[in-house]
Amino acid sequence: MLIIDSKDCENIDKALKKYKKKFEKSKVLLQLRERQSYTKPSVRRRNEVLKAVYKQSIASGKIEA
């Protein structure tokens, strides 16, 4: 549960903005999307390796982002 500390004179829009930012940082939505379907550990690991290779190729200058 997210708790937002707000002052009495604070605008509701600012409090909502704080809530949205805190919600995004907690990564609740990402966890929900991951749990919608099961991915095998081997597939998950393969995706991580492919992502690392891609990042490394960008860093070395082979691919321009």
From TrEMBL:
Domain of life: Bacteria
InterPro entries per record: Ribosomal_bS21 (IPR001911), Ribosomal_bS21_sf (IPR038380)
GO terms for cellular component: ribosome
One Pfam match: Ribosomal_S21
Keywords: Ribonucleoprotein, Ribosomal protein
Keyword Repeat: no
Ribosomal protein in keyword set: yes
Family designation: Belongs to the bacterial ribosomal protein bS21 family.
Protein name in UniProt: Small ribosomal subunit protein bS21
Species, as recorded: Danxiaibacter flavus
Name of the gene: rpsU
